[in-house]
């Protein structure tokens, strides 16, 4: 049976990854003008393979300056909500860390945190899908086809890593 702390840690890591994507895209420093658009984030910074989950695939699509600006504005607009969700998840995590299993209210704290994290996970999933849809709408039909191919390759690699474990 998985402990609640393990579940919370996983939830926090997933939320942190999504927040990192939004924050990284909205606050990355401007890139050198000589950098090709395909190698940069919409905010002008460099996209790293580990940052932003599958969003890094956009760096391989040859986005125009206008597309990069559009995606940056999408991510920037989402940043406050993502930050709030992250702060709520951190507060839940701290609440669990500060509550001892010997505390008479432990079960109610666990239930409260579990319910809160379930709501936050749902909100995070919805927010991520909305951001993905908005970013996808910026792409040309050719880029959408290329993205589908890249996503299939990414999924195959992820599946291979899963089976190797």
Secondary structure layout:
Blueprint: H1 4-27, H2 65-97, H3 106-138, H4 141-164
Helix pairs in contact: 1-2, 1-3, 2-3
Your description of this structure?
The chain has helices at residues 4-27, 65-97, 106-138, 141-164. It is an all-alpha fold. It is elongated and about 60 Å long. The protein contains 4 helices and no strands. The chain has one domain.
Give a short overview.
The protein has four helices and no strands. The chain has helices at residues 4-27, 65-97, 106-138, 141-164.
Average pLDDT number: 75
Determine the fraction of residues in helical runs and give it as a percent range.
Answer: 55-70%
Show unreliable segments: 11-51
If you compute it from the alpha carbons, what radius of gyration comes out, rounded to the nearest whole angstrom? 19 Å
Biggest β-sheet strands, sense, barrel: none
The total domain count is 1
Q: What is the strand tally?
A: 0
Features:
4 helices, mainly alpha, 0% strand
């Amino acid at each position: 049976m998985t402990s609640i702390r393990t579940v919370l840690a996983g939830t926090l890591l997933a939320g942190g990854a999504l927040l990192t994507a939004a924050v990284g895209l909205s606050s990355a420093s401007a890139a050198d003008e000589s950098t090709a658009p395909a190698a940069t984030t919409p905010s002008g910074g460099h996209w790293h393979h580990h940052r932003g989950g599958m969003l890094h695939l956009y760096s391989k699509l040859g986005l125009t300056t206008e597309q990069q600006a559009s995606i940056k504005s999408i991510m920037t607009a989402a940043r406050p909500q993502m930050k709030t969700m992250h702060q709520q998840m951190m507060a839940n995590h701290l609440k669990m860390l500060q509550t001892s299993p010997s505390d008479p209210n432990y079960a109610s704290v666990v239930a409260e945190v579990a319910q809160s994290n379930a709501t936050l996970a749902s909100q995070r999933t919805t927010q991520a899908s909305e951001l993905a849809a908005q970013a996808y709408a910026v792409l040309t039909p050719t880029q959408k086809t290329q993205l589908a191919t890249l996503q299939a390759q990414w999924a195959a690699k992820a599946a291979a890593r899963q089976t190797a474990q």
